Amino acid sequence: MTSTIPAEWLIPFKLTHGWKFQCSTNLRNLVATNRAVSFFRQVVTLLEQDYHLVNFHLKIQHNRKNPDQLEVFVFCGEDQIQQKSEPVSICSSCDVAHELSQATLLSEQQYTYAWLDFRNRSKLILTPKRHIERLSELGDENGEMEAFWRDTVEVIDRECDNITELNYPVLALNHGTFRKHAHMHLKIDITKDIWETKIIPRHKEKLEYLGQLLKQTALVSACFTERHLQQEIQKGVIGN
């Protein structure tokens, strides 16, 4: 059952390159009170149907001064950070049998997978099992949207040992030309302290193995577009 959303949560505050929405609660409570589906559904409907946005970046975080207040930032219109999402030979979020996928997979839920970041950054990733490209494509009637946000909270609590809202990760969802990877993925940006004290000790062997795999350009190249592959090689993320 979906609870009613206060009207003020859906009032967009105009920013230079987008908008901001504010909820007078945190993400855990939003999920626990069955309001996450209604809130995020109405936000993306407003953006895509009323504002006709196709390319945008969602940034979800708790207010630094008031951790019990959730903020959703919508950024668009900055051409210099837009990039085309090109097809790849292997979608590492779909082909869980691929060696890179196996190295990064943390858990499988009914509708989602949780991963370490394929590029070995201090992030966790949550993806829907279905190959979809937008948050609005998650289903409501089958519980897919509800599961996506519930799994987000549960994965963060499990991997970060019930972290408080004060240190809660910043979440990011890219749409349209703001993506490098076509399959929709939620980036969970872990702070340096939590990464070093919680994630690395827990997944030390997987992270070390991932580092070894990324040195094997031929093995992982099919999971990246040619342009993205060359960028990661230049950064030293892939290859020797």
Describe, in plain words, how this protein is organized in 3D.
The protein is α+β, with helices and mostly antiparallel strands and about 240 residues long. It has one domain (about 5-235): HIT family, subunit A (2-Layer Sandwich). The chain is built from 8 helices and 9 strands. It has a 9-stranded antiparallel β-sheet. Strand 5 (about 105-110) and strand 6 form a beta hairpin. About 30% of the residues are buried. The model has no long low-confidence stretch (mean pLDDT about 90).
Q: Which strands sit side by side, in order, in the main sheet?
A: 1-2-4-3-8-9-7-6-5
Please give the CATH architecture.
2-Layer Sandwich
CATH class label: Alpha Beta
| End-to-end separation | 52 Å
How can the largest sheet be summarized?
9 strands, antiparallel
Number of strands: 9
Radius of gyration over all CA atoms, rounded: 18 Å
And the CATH topology? Answer: HIT family, subunit A
Helix content: 25-40%
What is the CATH homologous superfamily assignment?
HIT-like
Given as residue ranges, the uncertain stretches (5+ residues, pLDDT < 50) are: none
